Amino acid sequence: MRSANPSFKVKYLEKIHVKTADRIEMASLTVEALKQHQNDDIPKSRKLSTAHRDGSDGIGPSISGPSLRRYSRLEPRPSVQYGASGRRMSQVSRTSISGTSLGAKLVIPVKIQNTYRLEPQQTEKFNAESVQKMMTGVLSSYLDGEVYDQKLCAKHSQELSDVIKKRVKELGFPRYKLVCNVMIGQNSNQGLHYSSRCLWNKETDNYAEATYSKGSLFAVATMFATYFE
C-alpha cells in the first residue's frame, strides 16, 4: 500500500475550509438582506417640523415674509376670484337625507295575503241602480244648455267618460274592472238603436246605462263592470 501524500491532504482540507467559509458568508448575507427587507416595510416616523406657526424656527429670529405653515386641504385659501374665504358659492343647496328637509319618508309596501275568494261579497257587488242614478246626474249637469258641436262633443265624451269612471270607483266596488263608454250625437228627431254584447259571468258582472236628450244633442253613457278573480 502507498502512503498518503501529506501535501495532498493539506490542499484538500484548504478546499473544504474555503467552501465552508463561502457558505457561512452567503448565509450571513441572506440573513442581513432579510432583516433589511423587514426594516424597509416598517413606515418611517415622520419628523416633526421645528418651524413655529408664526414663521420662526424657535432658535433664531423669525423669518420675514409669508408664513411657513403648509395650508391644509380643509382650510380655505385666499383667492382673487372667490374672495378671502377661497370657496366657491354652491348653486345647489345641500339637504340632509336623514333629516326632515326632504319631506319624503321611506314607505315600505304592505304585503297582503291572498283571500282565495272567487266571487265578491254581497255588499261588494256592482249595484247597477245606484250607478245609473249617478250617471244621469252627471250627464244632466255637464250637458245642460250645451249646443251640438262636432269637435266640442268629442272632447266632452272623453271628459264625461273619465268623470263617470271616477265616480263609480268612489262608490266602492273592489276588484272590479270598469269600462265606460259615452256617445254624444246630434238630435234631429231621428231614430237610433244602440246595442252591446259581452261575455262575462252573470253572477258577478253587470252593466248600467243612462241617457240624456235635450235641445240639439243627445248622449248615451254605458258602464261595464267585470269582477276580477
TrEMBL record:
Residues 36-96 are annotated as: Disordered. One of its GO terms (cellular component) is cytoplasmic dynein complex. GO terms for molecular function: dynein intermediate chain binding. It comes from the Eukaryota. One of its GO terms (biological process) is microtubule-based movement. Gene3D superfamilies: Tctex-1. InterPro entries: Tctex-1-like, Tctex-1-like_sf. Belongs to the dynein light chain Tctex-type family. This is Tctex1 domain-containing protein 4.
